């Protein structure tokens, strides 16, 4: 099939690359000339494991193309997948301005009878809204399908190729079947729904997962208060099939480009329909306070933070991505800076993006060694594999005092105990002092 993808971000690029890998002819369109230039040279503009090799392979095979021209990208496409951003606007609602522009771009160059697929995360009713925008701008016939995306950054290729399910929402059976056919090579279970249910499935899924995270974080805080151990508690809970083991890792809160904005957008939708979804308000407020946890723990330990030097390990909102959107490291950096502390941070891939968001209120190191040198404390903020394998004897030697606040419970306790000098403050389980 001939497919056009609008937007070469985490979702659009992963989708385009994977659809070309399974045999389709894909052209990816972006308004960002720099991104397209890099993609044409076979360089991925985002860090995503496995993406670049598939990009090179399918570009070389002539199945994957990149352009900034909507006309070139759309004129032959029988399926048009819209994967542009839907960030949060000031009132918490989803900002649909990129989507509206994309709809206008589509209407200008649409091939008659093309199927327009909305993959971006959009509030209930948006597919109908986009349909009306396109219909107002062109007389050509077209069909609409809602096909929300569930991939996770850091495992986007695997998640696309081996998704748990594909949701296809449409009021047009023929269009829905064609999109099912497009995905057939992936051999993934497909669920057909109406458009509004498809739109809701995406928000309900993300809001549920975010709530699961806030729930386990509150249990972790309670574990600390009563002397229980969150690792054992989560393990015991997760063995219950009704609960499941995923998303029970206590830590310093969720971040990223999806959970924070999607929970707020769903709350906004609820408000518009007069539904008081107070559970979501709590999910958000627990998460906001959890992001401050390491700073609170540091304050408890040191009494005052002015002049203290903190090594921050990890900047991205989670490992295996360079994405800084809503990363807890942003809040931690701000609080430490306000308290007069010095921060020197290291991340394996997110430093350049972090500089754009956090700026020069903190310093950036090129290695763990550089970050921890003479530090008063180490804050483990993102659970990169590299940090789990830290040589703690070396850490003890390099730091001014070996005090570790582990926001992701990623260091093995037996290794900590083997280094008798380390003071260790994890989340939801007893400290080692
Ligand atoms: P992104 O910001 O990384 O990428 C969006 C891209 O769209 C940018 O490159 C931008 O230049 C391009 N763009 C904007 N307007 C355009 C237009 N008119 N024509 C062509 N290109 C245009 O966004 P993302 O993280 O890939 O997310 C895209 C959507 O998917 C959002 O709705 C998001 O909520 C949803 N989603 C994201 C994830 C994730 O993990 N990132 C997962 C599931 C769903």
From TrEMBL:
Instruction: List residues binding substrate.
Output: 202, 247-251, 255, 318
This chain belongs to which protein, by name? Answer: UDP-glucose 6-dehydrogenase
What's in the keyword line of the UniProt record?
Answer: NAD, Oxidoreductase
Pathway listed: Nucleotide-sugar biosynthesis; UDP-alpha-D-glucuronate biosynthesis; UDP-alpha-D-glucuronate from UDP-alpha-D-glucose: step 1/1
Q: What residues make up the catalytic site?
A: 258 (nucleophile)
Record field: catalytic activity: UDP-alpha-D-glucose + 2 NAD(+) + H2O = UDP-alpha-D-glucuronate + 2 NADH + 3 H(+)
Location of the UDP-glucose/GDP-mannose dehydrogenase C-terminal domain: 311-413
Q: Which residues participate in NAD(+) binding?
A: 30, 35, 86, 121, 261, 325
InterPro entries in alphabetical order: 6-PGluconate_DH-like_C_sf, NAD(P)-bd_dom_sf, UDP-Glc/GDP-Man, UDP-Glc/GDP-Man_DH_C, UDP-Glc/GDP-Man_DH_C_sf, UDP-Glc/GDP-Man_DH_dimer, UDP-Glc/GDP-Man_DH_N, UDPglc_DH_bac
GO MF = NAD binding; UDP-glucose 6-dehydrogenase activity
On whether NAD is a keyword of this UniProt record, the answer is yes
Q: Which family does it belong to?
A: Belongs to the UDP-glucose/GDP-mannose dehydrogenase family.
- Mention one GO biological process in which this protein takes part, according to its record: polysaccharide biosynthetic process
- Identify the domain of life: Bacteria
Q: What is its EC number?
A: 1.1.1.22
Sorted alphabetically, which SMART domains does this protein's record hold?
UDPG_MGDP_dh_C
